Every structure is written in structure tokens, then in C-alpha cells.
């Protein structure tokens, strides 16, 4: 490995700490469910509201931080993300009322939404094309590490008297770690060149690319800058071809959420409670889920640049549709024995983590040209978080209103429809120049 690639990996690892914050915060609430629900006497709809309120902030954060990153750059924007995250984590843990927790979860979500677009965007703009998919997938790796860290934290804090409060406040630790390492990052060189700081941006790019790659990238940025349209940038997206790209990105983002994977990741205690497990068993199952999530993400990173984005999305959506049917049937216990439930759930998360999990973010960052990228990625990500809010709010109500078999068959149908969409509407993006 040459020195340039080592720098790219080092910077990508630091930037991916934003993904770690993202993963930690979306998963930490799941361990708090068995304790915060009786402590605050939350109904299923209230539980869904507290859990999902984070994603209202996420949707706002993706839209807002797209413009912030356009004006201030990627590095300063990431600093703002980490600072807000740390403060809001402590405030959530110290809150005594449901509405106060909701307010701070919306604020925390604002930073999580920013992290969800800024980290992969920064990494994509920093990485050479031949390793870009793998580098952007580092962000997804950090997300699943954050999820696993949250699950482990939940398990051990569950034995303390202030359990759900400590769970929330523990988010300040990864935020502090991110703030410590951020000074080591350079600004995105492509953002610098695109925004008139050509000499500084070229110098950073020169330390990351070969001479031929550098010249090609500078020429590519210049072409995109020359094509930049003044005025309202959202209107520019709907120029010929770009409106369809935005639609594809939105569907990819929304279907990642409605695939059912996040229902398992966020509400595993409720799901395994339906199978008769006690609280400790539920939280331990989450650690197993988080572990396979991490291993499968590493597998996905290995193949994303070799197999391609579209093939992995097809494998993922098709495989998940089948596994969701098996999960539902194992709950019913009619055709498939219930003791296979854990195996099917863990396999389902593994397929998701190797395919839809990382590939969604790779495609969203690759599909748009630079002159509309911040805005377009922000719009697609906002739809992702609106979908995540809807799923998180409705799942406790759905699983309380319908049978578990019906619930998982619904998700299976969504995955199958997504498979058809990918097959006919999505093009391979691995050779696109970012």
C-alpha cells in the first residue's frame, strides 16, 4: 500500500467517527426501552414518539447541513455535529419528562442527520475512484461499530439503577473522541478547489493521488464548476436527467429503511419479548445481532468495488425478502420451528449489513454531479430520515395491532418490490467519477 492510500485510509477513519456517532445514537434507545417505558409509563404510541423523534431532527439536519457544508466546508460542519451530539446526549440523560426527552432527541437527531451526509460525502471527495466504494463503506463500518458499542453499553448499564439515563449520557464519550481527532483532518480538497481555494486544494489532492489522477480530478472539478448554474439549486436538479437521478436516490434511501432491518435493530427487545425472552436475554441477543452486523459489513466492504453496487442491492433485497418470510413463519410456529427464529433474524441482519446497509450510502454519494451534490444528497437523506421516523413511530403500534407474521410479511413485500425497482431502474455507479 502506497503512502497516498494510507493517508486516505487515515482521514477516512477519522471522518467515519461521524458514522460511529450516528450508529451509537440510533441504537442506544433500543436498550433503554425495557426501562424507560415503565419508568415514564409510556403507551406503545408514546414509546414510538420518543423513539422516532430523533429522526425528525435527522431529516432537518440532512437538509440544513447540506447548505452549511456548502458554505463552511466539510471539516467545520463535522465539528458542529460532534459538539451538538455531545451536549444533547447529556441533556437527554438528565431529563425527567417525556416531552423534554423528545426535544433533546430532536436536537441530537439534527447532529446525527448532519453526520449521516457529511462523513460519507467527505470520504467520497477524498478517495481515489478505484477504492472509493471501500472507503465510503468505512463510514457504514463505523455505523455498525457504533451500533455494537451501544448494544454492549446497554447490556452492562442495564444492571445499574440509573440505567436508561446512563445509556443516553454515554453518547458524550464517542462525541468527545470525534472532537479530539477532528483537528487532524484537512478540509475536503475538492470543496476547496470548487470554492476558489485552488492552490490549497490541489496541494491536499496531490498528497492523496498520483500525478495522472490529480490532473484528471482537477479537470473534472473545473468542468463541473463551469456547468454550475446560478440561482435556486433545487431547480437545477430537475434539468434533463437529474430529476430522475434524484427520484432513484430517494427510493433507494426510503427502501433501505422500510426493508425491516432497522425495525429489528431498533426494536429487538420487543421482537424477542414476543418470543418469550426476558430482558437480559433480549439485550444479549442484540449483542449477537450487532456482532454479525459488524462482520457482514466487513464482507460487504470487500466486495462493493468488485461485485458492484447494483448486484449487491439485488442480492440484498431478494435475500431479505425471503428471510423476512421465514422470520414471520418461525413466529407462527406452523411450518418452521420457533427455535430457528434467532438464526433467521441474525442471518437477515447479516445480509442487510453486507448489502443494503453500506451500498445505499455509496450510491447516494456517487450518483450526483458535484454542482448539485450537497443539495441532492441532503434531499435524498432527508427522505431516508422521514422514512426512518415513520418506521420507528409506527412499528410498536403495528406489531401491537397485527400478528408478528403479518408484520414481517409486510416488510417482505416491500423488499420484493424494491428488488423489482433495482432490477429495472437502477444503474451501476461504481465507475462514476465523484
TrEMBL record:
<feature type="transmembrane region" description="Helical">
    <location>
        <begin position="101"/>
        <end position="124"/>
    </location>
</feature>
<dbReference type="InterPro" id="IPR036259">
    <property type="entry name" value="MFS_trans_sf"/>
</dbReference>
<comment type="similarity">
    <text>Belongs to the major facilitator superfamily. Sugar transporter (TC 2.A.1.1) family.</text>
</comment>
<feature type="transmembrane region" description="Helical">
    <location>
        <begin position="163"/>
        <end position="185"/>
    </location>
</feature>
<dbReference type="Pfam" id="PF00083">
    <property type="entry name" value="Sugar_tr"/>
</dbReference>
<dbReference type="InterPro" id="IPR005828">
    <property type="entry name" value="MFS_sugar_transport-like"/>
</dbReference>
<dbReference type="InterPro" id="IPR005829">
    <property type="entry name" value="Sugar_transporter_CS"/>
</dbReference>
<feature type="transmembrane region" description="Helical">
    <location>
        <begin position="136"/>
        <end position="157"/>
    </location>
</feature>
<feature type="domain" description="Major facilitator superfamily (MFS) profile">
    <location>
        <begin position="11"/>
        <end position="430"/>
    </location>
</feature>
<feature type="transmembrane region" description="Helical">
    <location>
        <begin position="78"/>
        <end position="95"/>
    </location>
</feature>
<keyword id="KW-0812">Transmembrane</keyword>
<protein>
    <submittedName>
        <fullName>Sugar porter family MFS transporter</fullName>
    </submittedName>
</protein>
<keyword id="KW-1133">Transmembrane helix</keyword>
<feature type="transmembrane region" description="Helical">
    <location>
        <begin position="405"/>
        <end position="426"/>
    </location>
</feature>
<dbReference type="InterPro" id="IPR003663">
    <property type="entry name" value="Sugar/inositol_transpt"/>
</dbReference>
<feature type="transmembrane region" description="Helical">
    <location>
        <begin position="47"/>
        <end position="66"/>
    </location>
</feature>
<keyword id="KW-0813">Transport</keyword>
<dbReference type="InterPro" id="IPR020846">
    <property type="entry name" value="MFS_dom"/>
</dbReference>
<feature type="transmembrane region" description="Helical">
    <location>
        <begin position="312"/>
        <end position="333"/>
    </location>
</feature>
<feature type="transmembrane region" description="Helical">
    <location>
        <begin position="339"/>
        <end position="364"/>
    </location>
</feature>
<feature type="transmembrane region" description="Helical">
    <location>
        <begin position="9"/>
        <end position="35"/>
    </location>
</feature>
<keyword id="KW-0472">Membrane</keyword>
<feature type="transmembrane region" description="Helical">
    <location>
        <begin position="376"/>
        <end position="399"/>
    </location>
</feature>
<feature type="transmembrane region" description="Helical">
    <location>
        <begin position="283"/>
        <end position="300"/>
    </location>
</feature>
<dbReference type="InterPro" id="IPR050820">
    <property type="entry name" value="MFS_Sugar_Transporter"/>
</dbReference>
